[in-house]
Design goal:
By secondary structure, this protein is of the alpha+beta class. It has helices at about 5-30, 120-125; strands spanning about 40, 50-55, 80, 90-95, 100-105, 115-120, 130-140.
Length: about 140
């Protein structure tokens, strides 16, 4: 095989690879109805997919408090602590008539008897005071 033929074969293979990756990217960016997605959304299930758990605020962060997920908390940080879910896992939380998309930012709970601890800003956004029962479910990539 001559050098020019080999170069053409390699170039055609590269074009085919780029086209395949592009087709996969476009296909994964659409939901089951063929509509382009707009971001994370709740995992669809027949029963609504909600779990319940006890949750409360973890309180105001200490100065330069670092989480087990290697994040530095501020008073404006939004996220939850959960001892099992992996760092960065996207979940929806619901309390009363409010729902918020958030992420796991720590695996260390400060108070016993809770499954989730919310940053103070997130607890305020949900209207959560003290330890309360919340709804939660996983989010899918949209």
């Amino acid at each position: 095989m001559s050098l020019s033929v080999l170069q053409r074969v390699v170039a055609l293979a590269a074009v085919a690879l780029v086209a395949g990756v592009g087709a996969l990217a476009l296909a994964s960016a659409r939901d089951d109805d063929g509509v382009a997605s707009t971001g994370p959304r709740p995992v669809p299930t027949a029963d609504g997919g909600w779990y319940t758990a006890l949750a409360g605020s973890r309180g105001a962060p200490r100065d330069a408090e670092r989480t087990t997920c290697r994040l530095i908390l501020t008073r404006r940080s939004l996220g939850v602590s959960h001892p099992v879910l992996p760092c960065g896992a996207k979940i929806y939380l619901g309390y009363g008539d409010r729902e918020v998309l958030t992420a796991v930012i720590d695996s260390r709970l400060k108070k016993p008897g809770r499954q989730f601890e919310l940053t103070e800003s997130l607890a305020t956004r949900l209207g959560l005071a003290g330890t309360q029962e919340i709804r939660w479910r996983f989010a899918t990539r949209g």
